[in-house]
Amino acid sequence: MTPRPSSRFMECLQYAAHKHRDQRRKDPAQTPYVNHVINVSTILAVEACIEDEAVLMAAILHDVVEDTDATFADLEALFGADVCDLVREVTDDKSLEKQERKRLQIANAAKTSPRAKLIKLADKLDNLRDLLVNTPQGWTEERRELYFVWAKQVVDNLRGTNTNLELKLDEIFRQRGLL
Ligand code: NDP
Ligand code: ZN
């Protein structure tokens, strides 16, 4: 029988699309924000062959607490503790200074659970693919370059998680002269 998306997964997509509805990415085309979270979940399903539904759902929800009014309590009530805990692991603490958040992403990467590491790798892969072809609005070339350097430091602390994703990330770092 052909596998079909579960109702839970569809509800998750609908919820993310609703919560991110007024947000745009930073690329010049101002792509709808939800495209990014769909990309991250699709990278996991198609390129990393992940079948763990909670991971695919958490990928869809990975920026919803960081960037919208959604709370962890909302996610737990709607999608359960497992999905909520995965999203918690990949959510930055927005009460901290940006530089500190960036530092903590590097410092905390290795302590993350293997399932949350998958989401972090796919998130970086999608952002870096975008940065290869676009410079976000208002960014200098130097800032774009520093993002690759910073992302590599995060990825280096997530290694040993998924060969396919790590090979694809390394190909990007090689193209940028970082490997
Ligand atoms: P930002 O956090 O400001 O921007 C990058 C984030 O924006 C991504 O992680 C992604 O987060 C989101 N995003 C939205 N649209 C896009 C897109 N089209 N392509 C890629 N990402 C997108 O990063 P910073 O530039 O602040 O930090 C990166 C590094 O650069 C750090 O090491 C920082 O110190 C350094 N730097 C920062 C400067 C600054 O002015 N802030 C200046 C020079 C260097 P998500 O997946 O969560 O949506
Ligand atoms: Zn993201």
From TrEMBL:
This protein's UniProt keywords: Hydrolase, Manganese, Metal-binding
Annotated SUPFAM superfamilies: HD-domain/PDEase-like (SSF109604)
Source domain of life: Eukaryota
A Gene Ontology molecular function term of the record: metal ion binding
Cofactor (UniProt): Mn(2+)
Keyword Metal-binding appears in the UniProt entry: yes
HD domain sequence ranges: 33-128
A Pfam match: HD_4
EC number: 3.1.7.2
InterPro entries attached to this UniProt entry: HD/PDEase_dom, HD_domain, MESH1
Family statement: Belongs to the MESH1 family.
Protein name: Guanosine-3',5'-bis(diphosphate) 3'-pyrophosphohydrolase MESH1
Source organism of this protein record: Drosophila madeirensis (Fruit fly)
